[in-house]
Design goal:
about 500 residues; Aldehyde Dehydrogenase, Chain A, domain 1; 2 domains; seven-stranded mixed sheet; five-stranded parallel sheet; about 35% helix; globular
């Protein structure tokens, strides 16, 4: 069992990699915020400097379009810079100081000082469908580095050369900025990834991928003698609910947007709307078919994903009562096709498929229809008048990254507000209009949801993602010279702090 460390290129054992991360943690966790922030900015700059090289590699290995990849690489740079700002600000440490108080209402209170600390080395399983933003230098890596945790990335086999080159570039930038060598390391094999989940030096893991693999890794993380959290994003079908009034007001615009959201990047997005719920009797077939026929074919990421896509589409189409609204295609290519790697036999180019079913059939068919189809495929569900949509979501779509509602202009009633509140129980992000495939990289973003969308309650996008890799530590009656810098009276890092003053409880 071997692993590749970046920027070094010689083989190292998994134990070497894990222990190196543990050694690095001792110094990295004490690094002043300014140095960590500068390192994150340096990594972003290094990625920008090598953009042409990295995008070309990503195109060859994934088949994704150049424009999509350049946008994703920019997002990756923004994530790093956003977390640099978080580190510099210091509010993420959540520093709380309780002044010693002999007159505290519950009895004498000691001097207590609490802040958040990095958890330790983090293992990050890179995703296949985001070779930049959820891969070697993606959001999970950025959040963990910002927290002060060394990162070991398990590279995805779908883009191995891109992973290695990205790790070389980013690791060199981090070291040049003053972080310890080994702050970012890379392993390649599946066996190495599994072994690291169970290694005592690793204190948390992040995973983006299938529900089956995510559950296996989460079970191993939980079965350790010292269990660790595995923050897994396991997939989502992201239902979109449409009212009759919304369709009446803007059917062509709405249905065209639906097709575009399903088809973008060949449907290989965790926020793709897998189901569109519309009232029975509404005319939607022609508009969907008209938009779908204009979508050009797009390569799927790799032959394994193509096999899974064909298998799931065949399963859905084999259910009695499923009506095909637009039949897309799957074309198997060879090494001579544009966008196919030299050894790319088995790659597939696809166009989108849309089907329709009545709500009662969806209930009867169960997993055959409800399970995610990873690719450009979606199911239109026709619901009867008077249907309680929140109850349908609770029954059939209990945990999702997103839920979307399209209402008419004058449908903002108390009844609709109650419906929205009920929907919030089943998703991390509720959209009122728009489409879920746009995920803003901002402080307020929540990219996570109830099971089975994710394994834990957290977000992998936005600044709140740093919280997954921090833990609270309090010091009681500690001398100033023994306290960490954020907890000292002189506050040398200048971080925001909440202070419970002596005597304040007397006025409660």
């Amino acid at each position: 069992m071997t692993a590749t460390a970046a920027p070094e290129h010689h083989d190292r054992t998994v134990d070497d990699v894990a222990r190196r991360a543990q050694e690095v943690f001792d110094s990295l966790s004490r690094t002043v915020p300014g140095v960590r922030a500068a390192a994150l900015r340096g990594a972003a700059t290094a990625l920008a400097d090598h953009a042409d090289e990295l995008v070309a590699l990503a195109q060859e290995e994934t088949g994704l379009a150049e424009a999509r990849l350049r946008g994703e690489l920019k997002r990756t740079q923004v994530q790093l810079r956003l977390f640099a700002h978080v580190v510099s600000d210091g509010a993420y440490l959540d520093v709380r100081l309780d002044e010693a108080d002999p007159d505290f209402v519950l009895g004498p209170r000691p001097d207590l000082r609490r802040s958040l600390w990095p958890v330790g080395p983090v293992l990050n399983f890179a995703a296949s469908n985001f070779p930049f933003a959820f891969s070697v230098a993606g959001g999970d890596t950025a959040a963990a580095l910002a927290a002060g945790c060394p990162v070991i990335v398990k590279a995805h086999p779908g883009h191995p050369r891109l992973s290695e080159r990205t790790a070389e570039i980013v690791a060199a930038a981090l070291t040049e900025a003053g972080l310890p060598e080994g702050t970012l390391q890379l392993v390649a094999s599946q066996d190495a990834g599994v072994a690291l989940v169970e290694h005592p030096a690793v204190r948390a893991a992040a995973f983006t991928g299938s529900q089956r693999v995510g559950q296996l890794l989460a079970a191993r993380a939980a079965a350790r003698p010292d269990p660790i959290p595995l923050f897994g994003e396991l997939g989502s079908v992201n239902p979109v609910l449409v009212s009759a009034q919304a369709l009446h007001e803007r059917a062509d615009e709405l249905l065209g947007g639906y097709v575009a959201s399903v088809s973008g990047s060949a449907g290989q997005l965790c926020t793709k709307p897998g189901f569109l719920l519309v009232p029975e009797g509404t005319d939607h077939d022609d508009a969907v078919a008209h938009a779908a026929v204009q979508v050009p074919e797009h390569r799927l990421l790799n032959p394994s994903i193509a096999d899974g896509y064909e298998r799931r589409v065949a399963q859905v189409l084999g259910v009695d009562g499923v009506r095909v609204v637009h039949a897309g295609g799957v074309r198997r290519g060879d090494a001579g096709d544009p966008g196919s790697p030299a050894d790319g036999a088995g790659q597939a180019w696809v166009t989108p498929t849309f089907v329709a079913v009545p709500l009662d059939l969806l209930r009867r068919a169960g997993e055959a229809l409800l399970d995610e189809v990873f690719g450009p495929f979606s199911v239109i569900v026709e619901y009867p008048d008077g249907t309680d949509l929140a109850a349908v979501v609770a029954e059939l779509f209990p945990g999702n990254l997103t839920l979307t509602m399209h209402l008419g202009e004058r449908e903002s009633s108390e009844e609709q507000a109650a419906l929205v509140a009920r929907l919030g129980r089943h998703a991390g992000r509720v959209l009122l209009g728009g489409w879920p495939t746009g995920v803003a990289v901002t402080p307020a973003m929540q990219h996570g949801g109830p099971w089975p969308a994710t394994t834990t309650d957290g977000t992998s996008v936005g600044t709140a993602a740093i919280g997954r890799f921090l833990r609270g530590v309090a010091f009681q009656d500690a001398p100033q010279e023994l306290l960490p810098p954020p907890l000292r009276d002189d506050n040398p890092w200048g971080v925001p702090r909440t202070v419970a003053a002596r005597g304040e409880s007397l006025g409660w």
